[in-house]
Amino acid sequence: MRRYPLRVQIFKSTFARPQIDAVTKKVRYIYGVDGRVADLLQEYMNFTMDLQEPNKFYFGEKDANGSYNGVLGSIIRNEVDLCLTAFFVKDYMVDEMEFSVSVYDDKICICTPKAKRIPDSILPLLSIRSDLWLAFIISGFLCSTIWTSIRIINLKMKMPLTASAAKKDYLAKSIWQQYGRIFNDTWVALVRVNIVRYPPFANECIFIASLCLISMVFGAVFESSLATAYIRHLYYKDIQTLQELDNSGLVLMYKYTSMVDNLFDEETLLFSNLKRKLRKADINAKLLNDIAFKGGKAAVSRHSKLMLHSYHYIANKQIWIVPQIPKSYTLSYVWPKNAPWRERINQLLLRFQATGLLPKFIKDMQIDTNIRDMTKYKNEEQQDPAGLTITDLQLAFYVIFFGSVMAGMALIVEQVCFSLTS
């Protein structure tokens, strides 16, 4: 192109970070994937890149008066020759604009506040999965029933008593009275406490030994889960589906209209409800920071942006990405329709993809971002591991307190009943 000047627009986005000169306040160079692609195109096509001032409306959208702002408006007004910030490939209702070949793919995702941490006072209860608690409780009732069945068989078959057996008047009681004692001893064995009176039959003693083995397994699982919960903090259940997102009542914030135009396009009640919750935020608003520290709302964002520039929020358990991704997009560069350089740029972009340059540029930017984040956040105050405190053991003291209160109330009731009957 013999150094022909091209008016190139590259504004701040996931893969582009314009660097402004501190003195002239002009764009000095473009950091990121899009900037490296622009340099390669300039080198191979031999044009002069005239970087335009980043448009404050970024991608652009239709105003109330029917005109377009941002890059869309610049293309319509013939103010830009080439935009090397990738657009979602969709219908923008602008006939004057044309897309390049596909550059890369991305997903639109929804991020919400991370679920709150489980309080230490109830952590011992919720550190164990509900199915394990259920298995433990069922085992207690089932084992007591099995033990009672063994007792009935022993009594009917008149099995010999052990040498250290209790008096026969214990066996003379009804089977329901004996079941109460068996039920109590079963749970005593399962929670690894010594049994005061052992059963009078040898096969029942063997059964108690099996209960002790079961209690060892359950106890080891409980203790390891509880220790892990105090080392690695546990949180309440996060939002997993769009239905749960709808039930949460969170408002969905977005910055760019192009992100939500076709986001919930299915004619379902769920998508209709989510559409009504969409709210447009200011173009310069820090949505992720508000979600992380204020909560009360969710945000529609690009998945690559979250992974590249906002991963510290995820690593620090401050935001959560809903796993159910509503939309995937292909992204391309744009320029005025029928531009004479479109074929050559498309050829070069396809060549960059075939040689693996674009994935390499993305990987390089990811490494640079990781190094920057490590440098930026390494001096943040880190919590040193500490031993358990009284706060961590609140539940144990609550159990002792309520147990003492109930025992005192039972003592008073027994004294009153005894005085009335005597």
Automatic annotation (TrEMBL):
Transmembrane segments annotated in the record for this chain: 132-153, 206-231, 395-413
GO cellular component: plasma membrane
Ionotropic glutamate receptor L-glutamate and glycine-binding domain sequence ranges: 30-114
SUPFAM superfamilies on file: Periplasmic binding protein-like II
InterPro entries assigned to the protein according to its UniProt record, in alphabetical order: Glu/Gly-bd (IPR019594), Insect_Ionotropic_Sensory_Rcpt (IPR052192)
Swiss-Prot/TrEMBL keywords: Cell membrane, Glycoprotein, Ion channel, Ion transport, Ligand-gated ion channel, Membrane, Receptor, Transmembrane, Transmembrane helix, Transport
Xref: Pfam families: Lig_chan-Glu_bd
Domain of life from the UniProt record: Eukaryota
Main location: membrane
Membrane topology (UniProt): Multi-pass membrane protein
Localization: Cell membrane
PANTHER family from the UniProt entry: IONOTROPIC RECEPTOR 100A (PTHR42643:SF38), IONOTROPIC RECEPTOR 20A-RELATED (PTHR42643)
Name recorded for this polypeptide: Ionotropic glutamate receptor L-glutamate and glycine-binding domain-containing protein
Taxonomic placement: Eukaryota, Metazoa, Ecdysozoa, Arthropoda, Hexapoda
